[in-house]
Amino acid sequence: MDKLPKIALPAIFIFIVLIIAISKSTVTIDSGQAGVLYKTFGGGVVTDEPPMGEGFHLVAPWNRVTVYEVRQQEVLEKMNVLSSNGLDIKLEASAWFEPIRNDLGKLHQEKGEDYIQRVLLPTIRSAARSVVGRYTPEQLYSSKRDAIQQEIFDETQKIVSGQYIQLNEILVRDVTLPPTIKDAIERKLKQEQESLEYEFRLVTAKKEAEKVTIEAQGKADANRILSASLTDKILQDKGIDATLKLSESPNSKVIVVGGGESGLPLILGNN
Fold this sequence. Notes:
Layout (H helix, E strand, L loop, with lengths): L2 H22 L1 E4 L3 E7 L4 E2 L9 E4 L5 E6 L3 E10 L5 E12 L4 H7 L4 H18 L4 H5 L3 H16 L4 E12 L2 H51 L2 H16 L5 E4 L9 E4 L2
Keywords: Membrane, Transmembrane, Transmembrane helix
Pfam family, one: Band_7
Protein name: Peptidase
């Protein structure tokens, strides 16, 4: 009984050490994540092998694993930029991105876990200031929104493509102009819209007038052709035809052919 405590204490100590060693030697990586292995006695960060995938892993207790999100992520950035004429513009843009999985070790070694703050956000800010500085506030507010968005993406992509980051999209969420400038632009756009509407009504009225003129000209030409074709002989024949049809009426009458001054038949009767 006296020896039991002396045996139990070392056993408990060894058990605790084993528990700590096992806990330090296991890593569980969730879905959408990957792990970068750092070998304390083996050359540091492992960059020549793929990162550790999802699931349960055993590692030496003296090594470390840094877990990264490798799914598409979004970062939102709000910034003040200057337009081409020096006006202060508030721009809100977001980036869709993801670290390049097979280069995760190099990203960890060269940029670190805070690569978003070190690399991505400064690049977006620089690209946005460069692009917006080429445009006027009116272009930013209306017609050039999509073009600006694409240019910011292109300039950001040129830089981050060599930084082990895959940029998927840049979205310009909001452009806020000074209130006085915004009001002036809206008034100008309204005037332009009213002018376009007035021009449209003028064009429509002109086309309608041309249509009426063409129809009238067509009728006039048709009447002229018809008048030119109606000779005395044709009129006389048509008069005879009409008279003969009248003779078929049940009323009693006498037809004298060629009795009129124009040679047309005369109809005498007691109607």
